[in-house]
Design goal:
With 178 residues, the protein is α+β, with helices and mostly antiparallel strands. The protein has helices at 7-20, 47-57, 70-82, and strands at 30-32, 35-39, 62-64, 89-94, 103-104, 140-143, 151-154, 161-166. The protein contains three helices and eight strands.
């Protein structure tokens, strides 16, 4: 009798298969600057639904993405450009609990300033303000295609694609840092 494998076991087996092939991430995930990320262009959803989606598909072994290194942000933007995705993606940051206190899903702080948040473009046709600038109406973090994939605070009910992050041995300590 063949035993059914649960999602957690399948993820672990996929990770081992990926590692055996020399990849640092399981099949389906893209390694970008040491992080295992999965861009889900097949679905559009609110930020809240994206949080649950990433928790569900990783069976608790990941979350809506955390991007806390400039090289990772650049790598994601290059990946999006290379594959001509042209979509906005949800990240796991929010200031919904305390306005202006941006936190990742693991309760660590979202970095501010360059190179993360979109700044004023200086061009009349791209009259962006410095982000985050949405106040209490925009509490969720996205990589906005219209802001060249820099961080942008947007209303949580907008519909974007989830960008999921899978914990790995090297990143597992990241979720416990405060």
């Amino acid at each position: 009798v063949m035993k059914m494998l649960d999602k957690r076991t399948l993820l672990i087996l996929a990770a081992l298969a990926g590692f055996a092939l020399g990849n640092s991430c399981p099949i389906g995930y893209e390694e970008i600057n040491g992080y295992c990320l999965e861009l889900h262009t097949e679905v559009l959803m609110s930020w809240y639904d994206a949080v649950h989606y990433c928790d569900y598909i990783t069976d608790g072994l990941g979350m809506l993405a955390k991007v806390d290194h400039g090289d990772t942000l650049r790598g994601i933007a290059e990946y999006i450009d290379e594959f001509d995705l042209k979509n906005s993606f949800w990240l796991g940051g929010s200031d919904e609990t305390i306005e202006g206190d941006w936190r990742w899903r693991d309760d660590t702080r979202v970095p501010f300033g360059t190179p993360f948040w979109a700044i004023h473009s200086g061009l009349p046709l791209l009259a962006w303000g410095h982000e985050p600038n949405g106040g209490k109406k925009e509490n969720c973090l996205a990589l906005n295609k219209d802001r060249l994939y820099y961080f942008d605070d947007v209303a949580c009910d907008h519909r974007h694609h989830p960008l999921c992050y899978l914990y790995t041995n090297s990143s597992a300590t990241d979720r416990n840092d405060g």
